[in-house]
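Page 47, continued from p. 46.
Same chain as before, 123 aa.
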Amino acid sequence: MLKKVILAAFILVGSTLGAFSFSSDASAKHVNGNITWYNGVGKKGSSGKKLGHWDCATKIGFDVPRNGTKIRAYAKAKPKKVITVYKNDVGRMPNAVLDVSPKAFKALGYPLSKGKVAGHYSY
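Result:
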């Protein structure tokens, strides 16, 4: 009888713990550097997906999140602007760590003529 009670308790505890999702910020990635824009909208990204306004490219060999990864990009604008884009391409980017579409770049609070802005991204 005692064995059945202990077994039932283990099952109850195990099923309760299984209902929770444990995530750690330690696994989150934070990348500092310039954010630039490129006109990839409508073109095929490295993921094979047709790129939209909220897709982005990360720097080849520098940071390699999976295709489709949700990325939060932060520009050091005042007030601070944040956009959400999705990694579906890669590029060489000699002066940047993230490329976004013109629409996404403007959403960071800068005109396209600025070209690049200091910031960071995380996922």
